[in-house]
Amino acid sequence: MSSAKTGYLLIADITGYTVFLSTSELEHAQETLSTLLKLLIEHTRPPLVISRLAGDAVISYLLQERFLQGQTFVEMIEDTYVAFRRAIELMVLNNTCRCNACANVPTLDLKFFVHYGTFGLQRLGTHDELIGNDVNLIHRLLKNHVTEKTGLRGYALYTEAAVQNLGLTDWPASLSPMSEAYDHLGTVPVWIQDLRPVWQEKRERTRVPFPPEQILQQVSTEIEMSPEQVWDYLANPDFRTILIGSDRQEIIRRKGGRLAPGSAFQCFHGDRIHLHTILDWVPFERVLTEDTPDLPVRSPRVLSEYRLEPAEHGTRLTQSVGRATGPLIGRVLINTVLRLSTRAFQRDIDAFKARIEADLAEQGENRELTPEITQEEIERAARAGLAESRTDSGETRTSVRPDGEPAPDDHTS
């Protein structure tokens, strides 16, 4: 066992398959769960590290020294849930089978359990097993009364310790406080986030356009990090200062403790303050701001877009700046400066890349890596998840052997 680690424990748990399934329907259910497990694995990106699969759940951890900003961590969970709901929606739209397994797909949902504490890592075969009292606690929380008391099926449960360490001062006001009681643990205060509004907002939201023909200046660079890590630095005023070329930056007008459309970066350039107001905020993909320079003349407005895209060796960050709009004198002045600033823009984005890559390297070279998870392991986990969900349902069921094949005889659990 390694020395004790401190950080976040995260379990993403798929639920919903509790109906009776025939042998052939079990095959369809397994295929569905395998697809969804693979999706969860793909969305558990650095600095999150997968410990292992446990039936229809993915267990991962995030060490304190690799910690993201609290908002980025929450956005990773929300982004995974949105991807899960999109996958379910597509399965329903594209499916013509009417067996019980396929008909039950719309009832599948996803829950997250988040705890902050101390744990050990013990190498078992190809994965690191998480051990310790805090690990036991988060596993106990899988059995709770959230759905019974609230009716929620898709949610994120945060322990009090997790919420406190996220550092999002006003965010808990948007959550529902609850408590769970367990033998040998006593009462555990928790906070519940309903994830349905997150999905609905993503479905209905219209992105603010930035027509390509309006772009006056564009530079890019490839960064050896996941989009989530680059995004975290991009939202951090201390590092964004390098990208913008300002002396320092401050965030104003947070929404519920979080950056969101309407929030703004105050960029200090000597005794002048340029305001960058967020128009569009799409985690891990895009930020669009409307920038108002502080000029001696009436200030024009400039659109700036920061776009993240997966690249061969990490993430490509592209910064695009549009033509200024507004009062004539200010517009002409800013557009002239922008046209002459290609080298300055490229220098700043290269400096941003160098600084954040150096910062990540300073965290230590021995970074934990998620073990390669094969398709066979995913399918085996799906079979185990189906067997467990059938057992928990208390219904007459088709048994599943450890090798994933139906047992000869059905029995009542």
Structure summary:
This protein is an alpha+beta fold. 36% of the residues lie in helices and 31% in strands. The protein has twelve helices and 17 strands.
Could you characterize what this model shows?
The chain is α+β, with helices and mostly antiparallel strands. Helix content is 36%, strand content 31%. It is built from twelve helices and 17 strands. The protein has helices spanning 23-43, 70-94, 100-103, 133-140, 146-150, 160-166, 196-204, 227-234, 237-244, 328-339, 342-362, 375-393; strands at residues 5-15, 49-54, 57-63, 109-124, 127-131, 155-159, 176-182, 186-194, 215-223, 248-252, 264-269, 272-282, 286-292, 302-311, 314-322, 396-397, 411-412. The strands form three sheets. Strands 1, 2, 3, 4, 5, 6, 7 and 8 form an eight-stranded mixed beta sheet that branches. Strands 9-15-14-13-12-11-10 form a seven-stranded antiparallel beta sheet, covered by helices on one side. Helix 1 runs antiparallel to helix 2 (70-94). The longest helix has 25 residues, at 70-94. The radius of gyration is 24 Å and the shape is elongated. Mean pLDDT is 88; it is low at 394-413.
Runs in which pLDDT lies below 50 for 5 or more consecutive residues are 394-413
Mean pLDDT: 88
How many beta-strand elements? 17
Which percent range fits the helix content?
A: 25-40%
* SSE-based structural type: alpha+beta
The H-and-E topology, N to C, reads as: EHEEHHEEHHEHEEHEHHEEEEEEHHHEE
Could you say which overall geometry the principal axes of the C-alpha atoms support?
Answer: elongated
How big is the Rg?
A: 24 Å
Helix segment tally = 12
Query: What characterizes the major β-sheet?
Result: 8 strands, mixed
Q: How much β-strand is present in the residues? A: 25-35%
* Gap between N and C termini: 37 Å
